[in-house]
Amino acid sequence: MSIIDLTCGSGGRNTHQLIVDVILKNLNYPELFNMGDAAYIGNFAFTTDSFVVTPEFFPNCDIGKLAVCGTSNDLTVAGARPEFMSLSLIIPEGYKKENLEKIIKSVRTSADEVNVQVVCGDTKVVDNMSLKSIIINTAGIGKIIKKLNDYNAIEVGDKIIITSDIARHGMAILLARGELQFNGSIESDCCHLYNLFKCLDYNCLNFARDATRGGIAAVLNEISEKCRKGFLLYEEDIVVKNEVKYLCEMLGFDPLTVANEGVSVIIVKRDKVEDVLKLVKKCNYGDNAFIAGEVIERQVVMLKTIYGGLRNVEMPSGLLLPRIC
Amino acid sequence: MKYIDEFRNPSIVNDILTSINKLVIKGRSYKIMEVCGTHTMAIAKYGLRDILPDNIDLVSGPGCPVCVISQGEIDAIFSLLEKEDVILFTYGDLMKTPGSNNESLLTYKAKGVDIRIILSPIDMLKEIENTNKELIFVSIGFETTSPANAILIKEMYKRKIKNFSVFPYNKIMPGIIDVILRDKDLNIDGFICPGHVAAVTGTNLFEPIVKKNRAAVVAGFEIIDILLAIRAIVLQVNNGTFRVENLYKRVVSDNGNSLARQHIDDVFEITSSIWRGVGSVERSGLALKDDFQQYNVLNKFDLIIESIYDKKGCKCGEILMGKKSPYECSLFSKECKPESPIGPCMVSTEGTCAAYYKYMVKSEHY
Ligand code: SF4
Fold first, then answer.
1. Residue B360's pLDDT is what?
2. d(Cα B133, Cα B138) in Å, to the nearest integer?
3. Candidate from B10, B95, B104 with C-beta closest to A307
4. Are A255 and A240 in contact (CB under 8 A)?
5. Which end of chain A has the least Cβ crowding within 10 Å, N or C?
6. Helix, strand or coil for residue A4?
7. Is-contact B352 B64, C-beta < 8 A?
8. Residue among B277, B142, B269 nearest B199 (CA)
9. CA B186 to CA B177: how far, in whole Å?
């Protein structure tokens, strides 16, 4: 008997395998096979997401803001303007009303930031044996500006822009759990990518995704598999904040595999890359943007180290497990 | 943390590489073993095999604590979880290691077994006050982790805790180094010796290596540390004079850390132990001393360690001895991948197969 373990939900290879083996096998709708951030229905993009995070409040963010940003970001990188969303709550009995209100207020603030309206929802309360903390599910809908999840638009030689320094969200959560016995905190990078995208010229963008679970490594491997091309990244250009870099180092994590919540991978024509980068850097949340590498023919994701050696950037295989010694 | 940037300075790296390139003698090959799993990972991470001269051949040794635990030892953990309602504490790397039954701690956790990942054994002390359940610690690791494990056990003893026990799976280096050196096919020219182990034991642990006319250089884990060690080994080999060199003086004193050794001595005694793919090796493990035998989970729950050293078809044993490279295992990157590992060398992030799978881009192997 095969059962579902935590690696199946971590955004890596096992998640992907589960989706293919169980979900796509039975739900073989053409639109679902795209496995992009959102589905395209007529002139609209449609997406859904669920949020579970412990703790539910952490530096610069909480599960409410995360839910709104996560949903609006999925629409944004699909090339749409986020407009409406739903909000479903599953709450364990005994949960503090005060905390719920904090979360809902944060949903409001975050929705207002990009003019998204919450227009339907649902509330369930379940016994606290089956659930320890709140779960939020959302769906979102938005008008398409330009379809940015079309794998055919990716061409060898195109350049990759990453819109911010990486790995901050994952490390923020890990630190906020307080299990590491390190002092200090890291702020999550959670933000609305729409505030960045709206200043860009969509004609110059070929493709976009946000690099959430599994980080840059997971998202590039997914795109590579779909577009049948590869990526070459340059280590020396990748921006990671020092505190994030050092914490990753200590725990044995590769920042490329750590989750982000406000970081997009944008693929652009080679001759447009400097212009786009200049614009991105001027926008909200884009000041740490950088050119990370380029699209190559061979279907593999690689990194050129600062010393000129090459290494594979594998699809992360599962959980981030701190290692011994 | 300033070390991270200083010890990764690309222009210094370049200078050392140039110097290594000048030193290596054409037509001669240099086979260098890194004993420690953290070195294996670092070598892969920096793409070192790509940038070193072709006649320097880096092979990985038996230094990944998860990889060297025998299959029987893993199975014993699972058989306990099958029959008793306990809380198991483990280091993260062990979570994915498959048992003979193809289960892993992750799948046991999914089935509801209470398994907690800890960063330090001391984390268990907090839990002990909250429960009457048996708390079990999987005590693995080399000389580096053993002192902390010993401190935990002493503390439990002092507090007269009864619902606590350990899987005593700690390994130590001397015996296994002997095995490697005694091997008649031993064709290793020099060893990059594990810096963190040496920090505890001191550098004389590696004297037997130089007695066999092989180079032994204690090194840290940054790229510059590793390159300097390789350069030192090349020099020793070229000159034919062998000695233990300590290039990790910022952490390792030649005499090691006597306090850490005292903790180990208080709790453990040296014993033979079973190594994956190798079998029983004298003076290579730590057993609980009599006073602490009450914490031996094997006695407490009547567990037997079956003598299964390897998983079928897996070549981890030979890989751990530097005799084979992962590319020579027919399962590598086909049936055996990080998400569906067959042997522990693929499970642990420090395992040689995982490092090769993760970081090797040489196209001929794909
Ligand atoms: S590739 Fe897998 S099966 Fe082969 S030696 Fe490595 S761990 Fe064992």
1. 67
2. 16
3. B10
4. yes
5. N
6. coil
7. yes
8. B142
9. 11
Helical (H) or strand (E) element with B161: none
CA–CA gap between residue A237 and residue A259 (Å, rounded): 19
Integer angstrom CA distances of residue B303 from A24, A298, B80, B132: 44, 51, 7, 21
Residue B235 has pLDDT above 90, yes or no: yes
> How high does pLDDT run on average in chain B?
89
Residue B314 phi, psi (nearest 5): -85, 140
Q: Are B325 and B304 in contact (CB under 8 A)?
A: no
ipTM score assigned to the predicted complex: 0.73
The residue to mutate among B74, B93, B100, B342, having the most atoms of ligand 1 within 8 angstroms of its beta carbon, is B342
DSSP letter at B335 equals T
Longest dimension (CA), chain B: 66
Residue ranges per structural domain of chain A: 36-144, 151-312
Candidates B321, B324, B253, B351; CA nearest to B39 is B351
Does the distance separating the beta carbons of A14 and B141 come in below 8 Å? no
State which amino acid sits at residue A204: C
Q: Tell which CATH classification among 3.30.1330.10, 3.40.30.10, 3.30.380.10, 3.20.20.30 matches the domain A36-144.
A: 3.30.1330.10
> Which domains does chain B show, CATH number per domain?
71-172+256-300 (3.40.50.11740)
Distance CA A187, CA B2 (A): 22
The residue behind tokens 């709206």 is A198
With contact defined as beta carbons under 8 Å apart, do B242 and B213 qualify?
yes
Read off the tokens for B160. 């007269």
Looking at domain A151-312, which CATH architecture does it have? Alpha-Beta Complex (3.90)
Q: How far apart are CA B13 and CA A145, in angstroms?
A: 48
> Does pTM top 0.90 for this prediction?
no
List pLDDT tens digits, range A147-157.
Answer: 999 999 999 99
What is the DSSP secondary-structure string of B75-90?
A: HHHHHHHHH--EEEEE
Q: Which residue from A323, A319, A322, A321 is spatially nearest to A12, judged by alpha carbons? A: A319
Could you tell which of B346, B356, B358, B365 is best to mutate to test the pocket of ligand 1, judged by most ligand atoms within 8 Å of the CB?
Answer: B346
Mean pLDDT value across residues A309-316: 85
Interface of B with A in 32-91 (CB under 8 A): 38, 41, 44-51, 65-66, 91
Tokens at A276, concatenated: 């786009």
Question: Residues of A189-213 as b/e, b for ≥16 C-beta within 10 angstroms?
Answer: bbbbbbbbbeebeeeebbbbbbbbb
| pLDDT for the residue numbered A325 | 43
Strand order in the sheet with B190-194: B56-60, B30-34, B190-194, B215-219, B244-246
- The H or E element that residue B320 is part of is helix B316-320
Question: For an interface test with B, which of A7, A254, A311 has the most B Cβ atoms less than 10 Å from its Cβ?
Answer: A311
Would you say the CB of residue B336 lies under 6 angstroms from ligand 1? yes
- Burial (Cβ within 10 Å: 0-12, 13-18, ≥19) of residue A115: exposed
**Which residues pair with residue A293 across a beta bridge?**
A160, A233
- Cα B87 to chain center, whole Å? 25
The single-letter code of the amino acid at B125 is L
Structure tokens given for A306: 């600062």
Which residue's alpha carbon is nearest to atom 3 within ligand 1? Answer: B314
DSSP A314: P
- Contact B167/B138 with Cβ under 8 angstroms? yes
- Judged against a pLDDT cut of 70, whether residue B364 lies above it is answered with no
The SS3 assignment for A256 reads helix
DSSP one-letter code for B25? P
B7 within ligand 1 shell (Cβ under 6 A): no
Please return the burial class of A112, using the count of CB atoms within 10 Å of its CB with bins 0-12, 13-18 and 19+. exposed
**Looking at this protein, which amino acid is placed at residue B139?**
S
Give the one of B1, B142, B339 whose C-beta lies nearest to A318's C-beta: B339
